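Posting here for the record, re: 2-acetamido-2-deoxy-beta-D-glucopyranose.
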Amino acid sequence: MGKLIVVCVIVAAFSAFIGERFVKLRERALADRLLVQNHLPNCRLIKGLVKCGSEDVTILPNGLAIISTGLKYPGMPSFSDAPGKLYLLDLENERLKPVALRIGQGFDTESFNPHGISVYTDEKDHSVYLFVVNHPEDKSQIEIFRYVEEENSVFHLKTIYDQLLHSVNDIVAVGPESFYATNDHYFGNAVLKQLEILLLQPWCTVVYYSPEEVMVVADTFYSANGINISPDNKFIYVSDILGHTVHVLKIEGNNYLSNVKSVNVGSLCDNVEVDRETGDLWLGCHPNGWKAVMYDPQDPPGSEVLQIQNIHSEKPTVTQVYADNGSVIEGSSVATPYKGKLLIGSVYHKALLCDLK
Ligand SMILES: *[C@@H]1O[C@H](CO)[C@@H](O)[C@H](O)[C@H]1NC(C)=O
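Prediction output follows.
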């Protein structure tokens, strides 16, 4: 009898704990947030990028956008069975026709599952390197390619694995072989990854990698997601998606990052893009992260784009540039401006090009 009571008490306590955690998680995921439409003019869908997502985008100075598509990520919906692909979209060409980026021989394209991407241009010889977070069979690794514009192709140079790079979400390259990367989970193990979300602890890290050293250079993120660098290469920006914050971190001489400030954004912001001219940050955000994960086509997740101006000043301004309730685009994960236009990508839905007001 005594034993039964103990078991009952434990089960009741555990259920209460799970229930309480669920409520906390729903709150953190902004499950009940109402979104008011805030559309931009002349939005056009990018044909050919429907239902495969366009999770991350980076735009080269000549207007070529590189887009990562087909992400399959545990716990998130995915509507494409095909392997992931990288696309090129020439924003200088009115036709807006994406073409698959050719990957040279010797790379396994069947298991390719690209996530965050970043480009590094070597100032000395103008070589362009494309860094891609890849999750073949749910693993976490970084691929470095060389991009050859004349051939519309990339050639694989190397794959990087490290136990510190166990749950990489996004990456920013800082040299031909070095980068900063975010981990969106604390645990590397698939089951523990699902459980840790209930604990909602700030245990995630940012890692610096070079062939000489790999180290954790910043921590205490609930889930470190998008990462990018300031135009002067002095600061790193990290979006803590579950913290509803964007962190400004200073690159120190030893490659460690020191905390400068964090800016509240009030949304679950995913990738961070930086306007190389103005220094403004552009964030593709999930206004309702709960809906983005649970996914009900009758009640789709919305999209939100935020812009942060003067982030290094006393009073950064956070402006909502675009919001949609999911009737146009679901689950926006990235937004990047180019010559008066805004390219918006999503985790598993469409890509949209709008005019900025
Ligand atoms: C989104 O808002 C539009 C009005 O702008 C409305 O017609 C539509 O039903 C809404 N969709 C959802 C999924 O709430």
